[in-house]
Amino acid sequence: MKKSAHGFTLVELLVVIAIIAILAAVVVLIINPLELTRRGRDAARLSDLANLQNAINVAVQEATGSGAVAVLCKQSGSYPCEGSSNVGTRVSDGTGWVKTDMSAAKSVSVSTLPVDPVNDTTLHYKYCANNDAWEIDTKLESSQQSGKMTGDGGNDTTVYEVGSNLSLIATSGGSCTY
To answer: What is the DSSP letter of 48?
Structure first.
């Protein structure tokens, strides 16, 4: 009787495992999960700042009596007033990290202030206002969105800026620093 062996040799199994490992490495390099995570966080940042920009503009337009100045820097009587999402509270009545009172606005509802997805000393939101203007800045992480930091019309190419005066926050010479 002749015995025949069925199965794979060790060399054949190692070759198949090596091919699968190479394909997996190529897929990970192409997909780049870290960049996808950065893009997701940047999308949240851009959405948060757009929503805040709309809410602040509405709150300023609806301000009556004491005027927009009291709305932009509700808590402090001195200018500039500033706040950061990594150290301030999320209250939207002007005592949180955004010093604009958005709780009195009728057309917009901001129950709590957003915070940066990372929200540490490097990646956070920064608010600054003087007697008639305001600005909010953040850093973007992904290579896909990095062009928005240079094309936002502001004075600092290392942060993404929104507001009515994009020179309030600067690395040097501004009313506030990031």
So the answer is: H
Q: Which two tokens stand for residue 75?
A: 């808590």
Instruction: Let me know: does 67 contact 74? Beta carbons within 8 Å.
Output: no
Cβ atoms of 112 and 88 within 8 Å: the answer is no
pTM: 0.81
Per residue in 12-42, pLDDT tens? 999 999 999 999 999 888 888 899 999 999 9
Buried b (16+ CB within 10 A) or exposed e, 40-61: ebbeebbebbeebeebbbbbbe
Q: Which of 136, 79, 70, 142 is nearest to 102 (CA)?
A: 70
Q: Which of 43, 174, 35 is nearest to 116 (CA)?
A: 43
- Give me the amino acid identity at 11: V
CB atoms within 10 A of CB 103: 16
Residue 162: which H helix or E strand, with range? strand 160-163
Would you call 155 exposed, middle or buried from its count of C-beta atoms within 10 A (0-12, 13-18, 19+)?
Answer: middle
